[in-house]
Design a protein that fits this description.
Structural class: alpha/beta
Number of domains: 2
Largest sheet: 6 strands, antiparallel
CATH class of the largest domain: Alpha Beta
CATH topology of the largest domain: Rossmann fold
Shape: globular
Distance between the termini: 23 Å
Radius of gyration: 22 Å
C-alpha cells in the first residue's frame, strides 16, 4: 500500500489541509509540539480505528470544534485505490468509511490498512511490563487473521465475565461454567500466540542479519500453563491441547478461594509473556539499555516483514522520532534495510541524512502547517 494524500479537519493543531506524499521516504522536520506526531496519529487511526496515544480520543478534536476527521487516499499493489475516512464526535462516537461506504464496526478496518508504527513508547516492548508484549502479539495476529482477532475478543469477554462472577461471589456451579469457557478460549489463544511468536522470531532473526547483527536473536512465548503441562518446545512443532486443559482446570480449582477474595482471575494467557533473547541471555532482565533499544526496533521490523508476507502487501512504515536514539552506524544500517518497495514516513526535530537522498521528500511542520520543501 502507498498513501497518496492525507487530509485532516479539526484534528488537534493540524491545519485543515491535504498533504501529498512521495512513494519512498517522507521526512517531516519541526520542533517539538508543532504537529509532526499528530500527522502520524491521523494516519495510524485507520489501522484499528483508534489512536496509538494514551488518553481520551476526543482530545484529538480541536478545542471549540464539535468533531474531527482524518482521511487517507491510498493505492494498493494491484493498482486499486481506496479512501479511508474516520470522524470522531464530541460524544466519542466514531464513523468509519472506506471509499464512501459506511462500516458497521471499527473491527472491519482491521487488516485493511497495513501500517506499522515505531515511536519512543515502543521501547517498552522489551523493557516494559508483560502486557506490552502481549498487546504486541495480539495486534500483529489480529492484523493477519480474523479468527485470531475473534479469539482475542472472546477470551477478553469471558475473562471480564468471570471476573464479575468472582466479585459477586457466585456459586461454584456458576464458576464451573465460566471455567470451562475460560479454558477453551484460553488454551486456543495460548497455542495461537505460541505459533505466532515462532513466526515472528524467524523474521526477527532475518532482520537482524539484514542490519549486520549476529548473536542469535529469538523470541519464545512464555506460558505457565504450557510449562506445567510439559509442552514447552522451541522447535515450533505441534502440541496437543488436552494436557493444557487439564492443567488449566486444576489451576483454576486450586486458586478459586484466592480469586474469590481478590475478584480477579490469576491464571491464563492474560498473565503470559514473551521471552526476548540474544543468545541465551534474557534481554528483558539482563540486556543493556542499548541492547533493549535495538531489540525493540528489530521487533517492529519483524512485525513489518511478517505483515508484508502474510498480507502480500507492502506496509507503510511510520517512524516517530526514533533515529535520535541511535548512533550513526546503526542509523545507517537501518536506513539501508528500510529501502525498497515500501513507503516510509519519518518525523524528526532535525534534518536526517538519508543514504538514498534522491528518494526522499522533505517537509517542514510549523504550528500545525505542513510545508513541502522539495
Amino acid at each position: 500500500m502507498r498513501i497518496d494524500t492525507v487530509a485532516t479537519t479539526h484534528f488537534r493543531n493540524l491545519a485543515d489541509a491535504s498533504v501529498s506524499l512521495a512513494e519512498g521516504v517522507n521526512l517531516f522536520v519541526g520542533d517539538n509540539g508543532q504537529g509532526k506526531t499528530n500527522l502520524l496519529e491521523a494516519i495510524y487511526l485507520f489501522k484499528f480505528g483508534r489512536s496509538f496515544r494514551a488518553g481520551r480520543e476526543t482530545e484529538m478534536i480541536r478545542f471549540g470544534e464539535g468533531f474531527c476527521r482524518a482521511e487517507a487516499s491510498c493505492t494498493f499493489r494491484d493498482g486499486h485505490r481506496e479512501t479511508f475516512a474516520l470522524s470522531i464526535e464530541r460524544d466519542g462516537s466514531k464513523k468509519p468509511r472506506i471509499s464512501g461506504c459506511d462500516l458497521a464496526r471499527l473491527s472491519e478496518l482491521v487488516g485493511r490498512f497495513p501500517v506499522v508504527l515505531f515511536g519512543p513508547e515502543d521501547l517498552r516492548l522489551v523493557s516494559g511490563q508483560p502486557a506490552e508484549r502481549r498487546r504486541f502479539l495480539d495486534m500483529v495476529g489480529s492484523m493477519t487473521s480474523r479468527a485470531y482477532l475473534e479469539l482475542v475478543r472472546d477470551y477478553r469477554r469471558v475473562l471480564i465475565q468471570r471476573g464479575a462472577a468472582l466479585k459477586a461471589h457466585a456459586a461454584s456451579r456458576e464458576l464451573v461454567v465460566w471455567n470451562a469457557e475460560l479454558v477453551n478460549k484460553g488454551c486456543a489463544l495460548t497455542l495461537a500466540r505460541r505459533t505466532l511468536a515462532g513466526a515472528i522470531s524467524e523474521h526477527l532473526q532475518a532482520r537482524a542479519v539484514e542490519v549486520g547483527l549476529r548473536g542469535g536473536f529469538s523470541l519464545e512465548y512464555e506460558s505457565e500453563i504450557l510449562q506445567e503441562a510439559g509442552l514447552v518446545a522451541r522447535d515450533g512443532g505441534q502440541i496437543e491441547g488436552e494436557p493444557m486443559r487439564e492443567v488449566f482446570h486444576a489451576k483454576l480449582n486450586a486458586l478459586e478461594t484466592v480469586e474469590m477474595r481478590r475478584g480477579i482471575t490469576l491464571a491464563g494467557p492474560h498473565r503470559d509473556d514473551l521471552l526476548v533473547r540474544i543468545g541465551e541471555a534474557d534481554v528483558r532482565r539482563f540486556g543493556s539499555q542499548g541492547q533493549r533499544r535495538l531489540l525493540a526496533v528489530l521487533l517492529k521490523l519483524a512485525e513489518l516483514s511478517y505483515l508484508e508476507s502474510e498480507l502480500s502487501e507492502p506496509c507503510v512504515l511510520l517512524l516517530d522520532d526514533v533515529f535520535s536514539e541511535f548512533d550513526r552506524e546503526i542509523s545507517g544500517r537501518l536506513h539501508g534495510t528500510l529501502e525498497g518497495v515500501r513507503q516510509v514516513l519519518i518525523t524528526s526535530p532535525i534534518p536526517i541524512e538519508w543514504a538514498a537522498s534522491g528518494r526522499i521528500r522533505a517537509f517542514t511542520v510549523s504550528n500545525g502547517v505542513v510545508f513541502c520543501r522539495q
